[in-house]
Amino acid sequence: MNDEARLSIGSWIYVLSVVTENTRAMAFNASFDFEVYGTEPKAMYDGERYYDEHLMVLDLKGPDHPLQ
Known about the structure:
By secondary structure, the protein is α+β, with helices and mostly antiparallel strands. The chain is about 20% helix and about 40% strand. It is elongated, with a radius of gyration of 16 Å. A 3-stranded antiparallel sheet has the order 1-3-2, covered by helices on one side.
């Protein structure tokens, strides 16, 4: 299998959300190069209050990847 074919197999963009107050989870995800691309206000409600969530993305190909 050539390099280009090997690189085209699988998922390359991963997204997740983290409650904005959860700084430990934010730091953990950032350590794997996840980046915040937005914030969803009042994304979660626990029956007493609303919580905002940061939306995070990891692009394994990156902007300079040959298959972009």
